[in-house]
Amino acid sequence: MELKQRLADIEVPRDRVSVNRKLGEGAFGIVLGGEVQLKNQWIPCALKSLRDTASNSEKCTFLSEATLMRQFKHSNIVCLLAVSTQEEPFYAIMEMCLHGDLKTYLISRRVHAREPGEFSASLPTTLTNFAIDIAKGLEYLHGVKYIHRDVALRNCLVTDKLTIKICDFGLAREAIQYGLFTYKSDVWSYAIVLYEIVTFGKFPYGSRSNEEVCDAVKRGDTLLEHLPVDVNPLLRNLMACCWSFEHDKRPTMTEVAEELARHPGCVAAC
Ligand code: ADP
């Protein structure tokens, strides 16, 4: 398979891979935690596996996603370290983000956020840094001409050092929805992520059905009226710009990252 050849230089034999636990469920199969031996050193990693019942077309999509991911090199994008495809199940081996996805991370810390103490005191700085990391990751992707198309809190991973890394470069969704997405639709979705951050993982459209959300978005409705009252005015303004109905009125991700960096602590829990 030609795709395998394109990954040949990062192929590792199975005896250099050690699997020790399940981290989550992915589109292609389970995601496992383990270690990989690279340059004589064992390092922690996450392994995306391809289920054994996968069709040839799913195998191709899995390998294409790995080929795409290996081109990205940025501190806010999950790094593909290696692949192991000589045996089944195939593994795409990524750097480990110890705290998992940001949505689960925030939801499980909701209670602490309301308690006075060290954690809540440092939250505005921590949350603003999260938002800046995601903005920088997207700025990089847009710079290399890649539209993410599924910017969401669940697709942001948290490392042991609390750096955020964007993941999920699902190619499967591209074929079906090609044409609907632009750099500025990523900017629109990014502001939803800001909403999810300040509300500690609240579901953006509450109890509305998918159809109701689609209709509302087409009408130009935004979450602006549903923002908590105590959202920092500066952040509210930034979100409003990202949700401008006309795409060219929305800022670029570079502008968003710069604006957030100018106002440390503006992304606070509400
Ligand atoms: P897919 O894109 O195939 O649907 P995801 O990338 O969404 O899979 O991964 C599914 C879950 O596995 C994530 O929500 C997260 O909990 C876990 N996970 C994925 N990649 C990593 C990683 N690099 N480090 C730690 N956990 C990860």
TrEMBL record:
Domain Protein kinase: 17-266
Top-rank taxon: Eukaryota
Subcellular location: Membrane
Binding site for ATP: 48
The protein's name: Guanylate cyclase
Taxonomic source organism: Macrostomum lignano
Range of the intact protein held here: 595 to 864 of 976
